[in-house]
Amino acid sequence: MADAPLPLAVTIGDPAGVGPELILEAWSRRDELRLPPFVVIGGVDILREAGRRRGIAFPDSLVVETGVPARYTPGDPLREGALLARAALERAAALARKGEVAGIVTAPVAKAAIFAVDESFVGQTEFCADACDAPRESAVMMLAGPSLRTVPMTVHCALSEVPSRLSQRLIVERTRIVARAMHTDFGIAAPRIAIAGLNPHAGEDGRMGTEEIDTIAPAIATLRGEGIDATGPHPADTLFAPHKRGSYDVAIAMYHDQALVPLKTLDFDEGVNVTLGLSIVRTSPDHGTAFDIAGKGVARPEAMIAAIRMAGEIAARRAAMA
């Protein structure tokens, strides 16, 4: 008899957000959707109350406690909830590092709330990099949905800072990570990578900016010299059109909204945030805490379901290649 697969660890997120109820919705549909097995890192009392409101019963064995008490306060984020969210992340990452779970799926957190209790906290992606003793630059955020995969080269910074943050080195190193992950995590042996320009019309031969000429094109030339199928710089206003999306496996954008606007427009309810380049598997639904609708029974679970499914698929591919 084959060994049973390791479960995933799903963190509870901020208990004032939609995370607890969406996790339970995914659990209630696990057999119907053939989801991989998972446990929840968080508070059993929180999940019990969230389940009561959505009419979902679950076994207490589903939950791994953190030892940090918090209440279920949908729509009302509290300091105790931020402490629990951070503790759940810490416990899940430790279990993944020890090989006791196949990977982690992180429910949404309020970054500012956790920062208020831990000033070293930047975001869940960076937290996972730190937990793996990896440079934060090596943790690459990819947004993946049924229609599109995108990677923002720069993430949470002001638009005015993007040109100074871009460099040939950054583009080359992050694209290498993407190319490797597309093979190991998504099973694409020779991924096609489309790289967007920064400026309108990809700079229009320098008339609308020179970043394409000075930075992006030389980086693409380096990548192609290494055998990576990278193309561009492509004008971003046409890169995501239906007739273009079939020509690449992943699109690399130069800044946050250039990547996230098309992904969320096309795949909002099924978008997954995947962290590439780490020794552990980590995914997350590509939406926030949604405090305004938490506990009202209207939050949709598709992105959480997609994140759990994708984490299981990536973990299985990595295990098969080990």
From the alpha carbons, calculate the radius of gyration and give it in angstroms.
20 Å
Sketch the topology as an H/E string, one letter per element.
Answer: EHHEHEHEHHEEHHEHEHHEHEEH
Give the neighbour order of strands across the main sheet. Answer: 3-2-1-4-11-10-5-6-9-7-8
Work out the helicity level.
Answer: 40-55%
CATH architect. name of the largest domain:
3-Layer(aba) Sandwich
What report would you give on this structure?
By secondary structure, this protein is α/β, with parallel strands linked by helices. It folds into two domains: 1-135 and 278-322, Isopropylmalate Dehydrogenase (3-Layer(aba) Sandwich), CATH 3.40.718; 140-275, Isopropylmalate Dehydrogenase (3-Layer(aba) Sandwich), CATH 3.40.718. Helix content is 42%, strand content 14%. It is built from 13 helices and eleven strands. It has helices at 19-28, 30-33, 44-54, 79-97, 111-117, 124-131, 162-165, 168-184, 211-225, 236-239, 242-245, 256-267, 302-321, and strands at residues 8-11, 38-41, 63-64, 104-106, 140-144, 149-152, 192-196, 229-234, 250-253, 272-276, 282-285. An eleven-stranded mixed sheet has the order 3-2-1-4-11-10-5-6-9-7-8, sandwiched between helices. Helix 4 (79-97) packs across helix 5 (111-117). The longest helix has 20 residues, at 302-321. The chain is globular, with a radius of gyration of 20 Å. The two termini are 20 Å apart.
